[in-house]
Amino acid sequence: MELQQSSLYKTYIERLRWTVVTLDGVNIFLKHIPFFGVLAKIQRPPTLPYIPKLILILQKHNVRNIILEPTIDTDPIKFQESLRSLSKFFNIHKEPFLPTKTLLVDLTQSEKDIFRACTEAKQRGVRRAQKHGVIVKESKSIKDLMHIKNKSAGFLGGITTYGIDKLWDLFSPNHATILLAYAPSSRPLSRDLMSTKKMPYLRQLADRHDNIIGGVLLLFWDHIAYYWIAGATKNGKKLFAPTFLVWEALKLSKKRGNKQFDFVGVFDERSPKQFTSWHGFTKFKEGFGGKPLYYPIPPITSTLRR
Questions:
Q1: Which domain holds residue 141?
Q2: pTM for the whole thing?
Q3: How many structural domains comprise the chain?
Q4: What is the 3-state secondary structure (H, E, C) of the chain?
Q5: Gene3D superfamilies, per this entry (predicted)?
Q6: Most CB atoms within 10 A, among 4, 7, 78, 130?
């Protein structure tokens, strides 16, 4: 089951003050938006609800606009028929809310093979972060992660972390974890401090100074680890903290028994005018050897690309 159709995600959306209606096992998210009307989001449903019943439910809630985002297993013919039926009563929103392309890393491989699949640049980045003394630890502090994300996102930081604390409260500890990267010192470390024997000392030093330079929120559902949100300071980027965080996230996700690592969205070349600002972090994510997964883009064709 896709994360967006899970019981925990349903409760999360409700806490964001959306109305959630479940029809034929499918969660439908409803929200009144000023000057736009009521929007209905049906995201990654395992199967489409019975359309006549769906129309009645949506009319009951005065829905004017629908966003319907299928899964890779959606029957394209039935989906097209459903769109035609729904378009007689509602406006079909063409722009997707969810990324239509992502990257998946196979976590059933050995740890060595996962590392070898990374580009040489990413392998060097991991080693350089370790050489600089960067420490990555699990944390329960969603506030620290939100702070580092807000700091890295600039004046839009508050938007990027909206509702993340509510998500964390619901998914942790069984279905979520936080990884934080620390720099124990702003000065280069001596060879003595870089020795393996001194690593416990570095961890204590990182905690004491609380010098957080990056962080990642991971969600876990149905044996898939989701790279949900991440951020890093300028200093963290210089010290290769983002690369080191992903590597540690891959190892931890594998250790927890997940089979795939989902990067939760990259630039989709099928829609070149959409999400054009994603080129940078798409290149970053591609460096970890994941394989592309394409979701259908309405109107979809009979051939789905994987």
A1: 101-291
A2: 0.87
A3: 2
A4: CCHHHCHHHHHHHHHCCCEEEEECCEEEEEEEECCCEEEEEEECCCCCCCHHHHHHHHHHCCEEEEEEECCCCCCHHHHHHHHHHHHCCCEECCCCCCCCEEEEEECCCCHHHHHHHCCHHHHHHHHHHHHCCCEEEEECCHHHHHHHHHHHHHHHHHHHCCCHHHHHHHHCCCCEEEEEEECCCCCCCCCCCCCHHHHHHHHHHHHHHCCEEEEEEEEEECCEEEEEEEEECHHHHHCCHHHHHHHHHHHHHHHCCCCEEECCCCCCCCCCCCCHHHHHHHHHHHCCCCEEEECCCCCCCCCCCC
A5: 3.40.630.30
A6: 4
